[in-house]
Design goal:
19 strands; about 475 residues; alpha/beta
Length: about 475
Amino acid sequence: MPRPATVVVIGAGISGLTVAHALTAAGHDIVVVDRRPAAGGRIHTERSNGFLVEHGPHSMITPASAAESLIDALDLAGERIERGEGVRRRYLVRDGRVHGLPLSPLGFLSSGFISLRGRLRLLAEPFVGAAHGDETVADFVRRRFGQELLDYVFDPLVGGLYAGNPRRLSVGALFPQLRRLERTYGSVLRGMFAARRNGSGGAFDPRHRRLFSFRDGMGMLPATLVGRLAGRVRFGVRVEAIEAMTGGYRLALRQADACSSLRARCVVLALPAYAAARALQPLAESAASALATIEHPPLAVTALGFRARDIDHPLDGLGVLTPTVEARGVLGMLFSSTLFPGRAPDGHVLLTAYVGGARQPELALLPRAELEQLVFREARDLLGARGAPVFASVRYWPQGLPQLDLGHDKRVGALQVLEQECPGIFVTGNYVAGVSTTACIESALAAAARVDVLLRGQRVRRGAAMGI
């Protein structure tokens, strides 16, 4: 029988590749398997006709020490590109029109986008009592900031970032820092001001937050990781079953029409929640059941390229987000060619629209031609698009982003129990600590550290038993 690998990582998305890279650097023998023909998972960069399209995450955000350490280790720092200088505003839709808002919190409040009544309600936030236990994002925001901030700020934000419904998603899972500020200071606003005063504003201080990507797109990150793991990543391999055995686990594999097996001391599942649930079912029914309840509504990403002269809007922002109450056909549109250089040929612009999600899942299933027409109508109505697009690209995600709704902390707890009851089985992914690329990297590195601790402990015990 072939010598067992130290660790088998299932899944070659950013989470699985990060785990594998960290464990390889720690001296462990790693094999990565993925049923797909290429790496990246949700990261999918396409270059066509001079346009560079991100069909998955389009950027990362600093400060993010774990992600930046990984980038440095991969010698990718020189490939980083910062947010374009043309980004001066954020845009939201209200009363059928696009409103440009300053990037700073103070500028936002003084812009007039939020009514006087809404601003007064916001300023009353420090006098609102704290609550215990988890809440939906909608309940938390309505309680602390009022209905208008929910409808016109947080709802479009949740739709744009998570393709989700704030009336179902957990504030503790999506915005743990808000709940932490409430519990620590009794007020989110007081906590934010205190953090700014002592220099720890972090996610709340735009002076210290920067978007960045890579010269050839986010796909550079998984591609570089695969290069560093040369010979350790096997594509087109499906894991049919995981079976516990003495000293580890046996994985039944299928590649094309051939079956094989692989033994491992540890197995890291870096799969979407629904796939991890199926793999875990024979081993840990409670953890599998917890993951199976995470919904993944369909999402379609539609990119349209235009001649710059055919768009009336200056596109001087990150993009535009649409609140549910506005009943638009898109969750939002990124101004991709403004956000980062090199995303469109000279004299052209690129818009990337997100359709469907939890808000309107049926729209994400439209045929390609209808989807492109829908996005064009939105670009025409909101941004003054006149001429027909010169470029179009569509990516369907039948199972989109995980929806971390109420009770998600119990699911994470079930994974912690799993690691205790099934030593050597570990789980990481975009449903553990957040859907962003930086959150996935942090979660993956934490999982790699736990694997390393277990393996080093086994070595110590084995050495002691041999009298070493």
